[in-house]
């Protein structure tokens, strides 16, 4: 029989256990709520109170590649080294004999400095300064921009209070090759020039973040990490051929220096597509070492510079004359070396001569200013102006290069008596090299002008390919008119004064020279010229247009200075793209009637 006295302790024990179980259950429920149900809310609260830490996850800026996929601009990883001053101290390492050895802080600092290029004292001072400012400091910047090699060397030291953050940096594997087009970024990664700037919407990466808690020893607390991933930039493919660009940059540097010119350019365009295959110039910029170049050499004069095209414009005037029905290749005018026209304008040729009965083809062969003026007056000024606009003169090319110039083509209402004639032979107007090459592309392409292009596509990080819309082709002159002009320009190279200098064995070529005056402070400079030589090949079925310009050459002051450069440039173009030699002979046109 159980007495009351024996039941009382048992009851108290049961009650006590029940209370303990209830308390434990409350704690368990609360713990589950904190660690599971409301875990993210509490992490957010702690991060908001500054308990957490965050790291930027850098996306990789996209590459710029040539038409064959060769890298012109890319990204590499660099590392920023940081110290945790609050944990700096001696290290325990295992010696060669397997025994534990203590390495003091000054020795560790010396080992770090031997890799980063700092002295032991410099490294120790960084830590001391941080602790002086904040005795509990957990951050001190050691050095930025370390290479992967140095990062690995530091990591091999096994220093727990040394941390390294990686981030992308820009590199240009071929240095100055296409540097005038590619441009460059600043030390902070911001695009500053060229296509790096103009195509930033394609190339730019979107950075992500990594937020977390870490303890005093720097270890990340499990369950506190939140990651927003970075998105890499796209790949920008150009129409440029890297190897051809390299060769032509060497060539124009040599030609510019040999002729004592201020600067020079070579441009290559595919006649049937309008794609720019090379745009070389000298001086230029190496994006890896921008400060080594003068300010004026850090971009592209090809797109931003303008010049008077001189006699290269006679090819355009001939196309207008033929297409409008005013005259043909063998039509004639009588022209002297200097003439005064009925409106009072005075025009003269580079070389004096008596009255000559020139054909239109002969005017181009001898580059007669008087002769082309007489053919030009057969076409109304408004009609000539309309043709020039359709050829693209006075308008940006649409390539999309930042800061591209539009040149100068004044409306007919602003043409005075002299301008009426001067525009026919490339004075009183200013063009860019892309404008001039684009006009000759139209002539070489049977009268159809295709907008020039420098960008092939942008391939996003997800594989999406975006192509560039350059606009619709324009029929500037008829195919028949263009073919007549092609034939006349071929005769310039066959019968003109530079025929031997520009000839390439096995190929038919056509083109025109230009010697433009150089304006300064509203007046023409005396005795110096901007010289141009532009042509296409093969003349029987044009595939490529090549132009060479020199600014104020002093070795030879006429466009003859450009002949050797043109011949070598065109030869390389034909080799690069494996253009077959011509299997026909040119039709010789009469120079005089």
UniProtKB/TrEMBL annotation:
GO CC aspect terms: plasma membrane
Keyword Heme assigned: no
Annotated keywords: Membrane
UniProt xrefs under PROSITE patterns: AA_TRANSFER_CLASS_1
UniProt keyword Glycoprotein present: no
Top-level lineage group: Bacteria
Entry similarity comment: Belongs to the transpeptidase family.
Listed name of the protein: Penicillin-binding protein 2
Organism from which the protein derives: Microbacterium caowuchunii
């Amino acid at each position: 029989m159980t007495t009351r006295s024996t039941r009382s302790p048992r009851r108290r024990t049961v009650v006590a256990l029940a209370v303990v179980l209830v308390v434990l259950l409350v704690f368990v429920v609360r713990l589950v709520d904190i660690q599971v149900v409301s875990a993210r809310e509490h992490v957010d609260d702690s991060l908001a109170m500054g308990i957490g830490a965050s790291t930027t996850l850098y996306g990789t800026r996209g590459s710029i590649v040539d038409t064959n996929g060769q890298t012109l601009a890319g990204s590499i990883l660099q590392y920023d080294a940081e110290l945790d001053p609050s944990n700096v101290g001696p290290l325990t390492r295992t010696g060669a004999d397997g025994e534990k050895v203590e390495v003091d802080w000054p020795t560790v600092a010396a080992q770090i400095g031997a890799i980063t290029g700092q002295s032991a004292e410099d490294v120790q001072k960084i830590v001391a300064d941080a602790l002086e400012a904040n005795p509990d400091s957990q951050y001190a910047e050691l050095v930025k921009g370390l290479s992967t090699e140095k990062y690995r060397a530091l990591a091999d030291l096994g220093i727990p209070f040394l941390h390294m953050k990686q981030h992308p940096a820009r590199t240009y594997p071929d240095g100055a090759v296409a540097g005038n087009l590619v441009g460059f970024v600043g030390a902070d990664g911001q695009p500053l020039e060229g296509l790096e700037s103009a195509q930033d919407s394609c190339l730019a990466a979107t950075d992500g973040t990594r937020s977390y808690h870490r303890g005093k020893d720097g270890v990340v607390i499990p369950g506190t990490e939140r990651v927003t991933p970075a998105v890499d930039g796209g790949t920008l493919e150009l129409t440029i051929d890297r190897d051809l660009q390299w060769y032509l940059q060497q060539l124009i540097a040599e030609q510019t220096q040999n002729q004592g010119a201020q600067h020079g350019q070579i441009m290559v365009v595919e006649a049937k597509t309008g794609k720019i295959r090379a745009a070389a110039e000298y001086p230029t910029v190496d994006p890896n070492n921008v400060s080594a170049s003068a300010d004026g050499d850090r971009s592209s004069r090809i797109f931003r510079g303008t010049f008077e095209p001189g006699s290269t414009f006679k090819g355009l005037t001939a196309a207008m004359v033929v297409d409008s029905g005013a005259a043909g290749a063998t039509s004639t005018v009588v022209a002297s070396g200097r003439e005064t026209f009925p409106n009072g304008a005075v025009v003269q040729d580079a070389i004096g001569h008596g009255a000559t009965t020139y054909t239109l083809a002969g005017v181009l062969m001898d580059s007669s200013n008087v002769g082309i003026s007489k053919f030009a007056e057969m076409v109304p000024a408004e009609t000539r102006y309309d043709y020039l606009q359709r050829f693209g003169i006075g308008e940006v090319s649409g390539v999309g290069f930042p800061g591209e110039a539009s040149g100068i083509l004044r409306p007919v209402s602003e043409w005075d008596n002299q301008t009426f004639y001067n525009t026919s032979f490339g004075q009183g107007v200013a063009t860019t090299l892309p404008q001039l090459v684009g006009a000759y592309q139209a002539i070489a392409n049977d009268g159809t002008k295709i907008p020039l292009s420098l960008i092939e596509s942008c391939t996003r990080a997800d594989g999406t390919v975006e192509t560039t819309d350059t606009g619709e082709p324009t029929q500037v002159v008829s195919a028949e008119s263009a073919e007549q002009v092609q034939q006349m320009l071929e005769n310039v190279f066959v019968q003109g004064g530079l025929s031997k200098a520009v000839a390439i064995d096995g190929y038919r070529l056509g083109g025109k020279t230009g010697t433009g005056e150089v304006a300064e402070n509203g007046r023409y400079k005396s005795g110096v010229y901007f010289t141009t030589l532009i042509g296409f090949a093969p003349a029987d079925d044009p595939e490529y247009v090549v132009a060479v310009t020199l600014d104020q050459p002093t070795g030879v002051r006429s466009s003859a200075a450009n002949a050797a450069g043109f011949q070598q440039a065109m030869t390389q173009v034909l080799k690069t793209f494996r253009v077959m030699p011509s299997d026909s002979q040119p039709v010789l046109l009469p120079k005089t009637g």
